[in-house]
């Protein structure tokens, strides 16, 4: 059996641009892509913390260290500069791989600068 698990996420990044007339996708600071392990052109899910919208697109590389998170094309209707988003990528694992796998979680400040990484999620409080 193949399981679809969270591979990586960039948690609470700030949208810097929303480009309606760009060809689509989401441009992400190349340093954040490298740290998270999200590849250029990989499918990503974006969850807008401010608006509650969720959509799927693909990642493209913005300049390293630029802090850019640009939501492009039709998705620009679903996020605007200043919105906080969670960007997630998933991967398929067999059950043996899944038993050992831990996602890469990337945390950023309000300028999309790395604060820390983790390979686990905090426990849900009761």
From TrEMBL:
Q: Where does substrate bind?
A: 57, 73-75
| Domain of life (superkingdom) | Bacteria
Catalysed reactions, as listed in the record: L-aspartate + H(+) = beta-alanine + CO2
Localization recorded for this chain is: Cytoplasm
The PTM entry states: Is synthesized initially as an inactive proenzyme, which is activated by self-cleavage at a specific serine bond to produce a beta-subunit with a hydroxyl group at its C-terminus and an alpha-subunit with a pyruvoyl group at its N-terminus.
Protein's pathway: Cofactor biosynthesis; (R)-pantothenate biosynthesis; beta-alanine from L-aspartate: step 1/1
MF GO annotations: aspartate 1-decarboxylase activity
Residue numbers of Pyruvic acid (Ser) PTMs: 25
Q: How is the cofactor bound?
A: Binds 1 pyruvoyl group covalently per subunit.
- Give the active-site positions: 25 (schiff-base intermediate with substrate), 58 (proton donor)
What InterPro entries has UniProt attached to this entry? Asp_de-COase-like_dom_sf (IPR009010), Asp_decarbox (IPR003190)
Q: Which cofactor does it need?
A: pyruvate
What EC number(s) does its UniProt record assign? 4.1.1.11
Family according to the record: Belongs to the PanD family.
Q: What does this protein do?
A: Catalyzes the pyruvoyl-dependent decarboxylation of aspartate to produce beta-alanine.
The UniProt entry, under PANTHER family, shows: ASPARTATE 1-DECARBOXYLASE (PTHR21012:SF0)
Task: State whether it acts alone or in a complex, and with which partners, per the record.
Answer: Heterooctamer of four alpha and four beta subunits.
Q: What is this protein's record name?
A: Aspartate 1-decarboxylase
Q: Organism source for this protein?
A: Lysobacter korlensis
Lineage of the species this protein comes from = Bacteria, Pseudomonadati, Pseudomonadota, Gammaproteobacteria, Lysobacterales
